[in-house]
């Protein structure tokens, strides 16, 4: 199976924050990989911009180092790296200042796609948008890419949308949620909407419940003070887990078209019920094994910010009434693992003796590690001894299915940046979607703040607080094991 690489149109991509962590770890190595794959046309240019006083040569050195550090060794072809670096430049600019803008303007070429990646703190988005226009650098065809966090509540998200809307139309704004760029997440749409198999069963009548898990092993050390102002609900649930929930729950769009897909996702968010306090469990990891706990890492002994959250959500519409969606995400957990598990109901009547190993069908979509899908089926246990049933996986790992081509699957950032150049917004969040997600999250957060709830401690390397287990147990269900 050969993955087709279709080159995008030539572009000038300016990365504000080009010297930052995200640019070094993800954006620049990703662009190099697309260059290597033949997707980035040779007459494209990448221009880094930040306050640091660097020249082109200095920035190229930095990008070369980033490639050496973050691209697998077998992909680091010397000649290709040199050819890629030839396409890179740098302009020193303060987003809040006046210097450098005319120089940047002089670097931009006519008749190529212009894209501006705002890989800086959101507080600078307005300054960048305003100055790009004031200096005539952005035009009606230019695109801007903005990073998370997109606000910390509805009011701040609205304010950000408003400030961007002063200078750019919605069709020019690409709000990144890198979960949407993951191969498996897009496959979720293919599985649902390119097969007749699941769609008739994809409803409360046949689905018992859905679990969405995003588990990390890392803590917040090094960025604890920053994280403490946000927490798992703002950092993960309002955006990433919400997007996954939407893709599972949405109605089939009339076409695989940006607004058709985003309209359907928006309807799901708007149909979400308020979450009851008893359906929320928040946790903070404790110290152990010579490592500090959350309160030490956040340098806030009185912190009430959650490093773990589990929620039971309901969607009030015809398709989903009565099927709970359980979401959980946390840091310092047993394994780094993200998956969506759709558990189907048992058949209405068993012709087999129930004692003989009855289990339900589960469709598991693994986002990491080992991206792929797994359908748990019941079959007869082989051999004599009567009709005993056993559960077996129909397992599709992308790495196995695609063989050597799997290595060329672009990572989320690579794919999303190429989509920006193509002008395809399907995998980016629209302004109204982000606002609707905050409108759902805000009262939940205000609820625990008003009650003065404290997160429950949990052991590092565990699967989260005890109460999270109870959230499922009291419904007669169990979380799936968190496995790496
Ligand atoms: N790192 C990640 O994994 C990650 C993941 C998701 C989202 N994000 C988001 O991506 C954005 C960038 O994150 P980061 O981790 O790369 O941050 P970072 O390492 O702190 O880098 C910030 C970048 O912005 C530049 N900068 C700061 N103030 C500036 C100004 N006034 N004018 C122009 N440039 C300025 C910095 O360079 P100078 O100091 O030289 O100006 C640097 O290049 C943030 O919005 C963050 O929330 C990051």
Order of H and E elements: EHEHHEHEHEHEHEHHHEHEEEEEEHHHEH
Nearest-integer average pLDDT: 93
The major sheet is characterized as: 9 strands, mixed
Identify the CATH architecture of the largest domain: 2-Layer Sandwich
Shape: globular
Instruction: Say which molecules are bound, naming each kind only once.
Output: NADP nicotinamide-adenine-dinucleotide phosphate
Structure commentary:
The protein has helices at residues 21-36, 56-70, 78-85, 101-107, 125-134, 154-165, 183-193, 224-227, 232-249, 258-270, 294-297, 398-402, 412-422, 431-451, 466-473, and strands at residues 11-16, 45-50, 88-92, 113-118, 143-146, 173-175, 207-215, 280-285, 308-313, 325-330, 337-344, 362-368, 372-380, 389-397, 456-458. The mean pLDDT is 93. Helix content is 34%, strand content 19%. Helix 1 links the parallel strand 1 (11-16) and strand 2 (45-50). The two termini are 27 Å apart. The longest helix has 21 residues, at 431-451. The strands form two sheets. It has a nine-stranded mixed β-sheet with strand order 14-13-12-11-7-10-9-8-15, with helices on both faces. Strands 3-2-1-4-5-6 form a six-stranded parallel β-sheet, with helices on both faces. It is α/β, with parallel strands linked by helices and 484 residues long. The chain has 15 helices and 15 strands. The protein has two domains: 11-147, NAD(P)-binding Rossmann-like Domain (Rossmann fold); 180-410 and 425-473, 2-Layer Sandwich (Dihydrodipicolinate Reductase, domain 2), CATH 3.30.360. The protein binds NADP nicotinamide-adenine-dinucleotide phosphate.
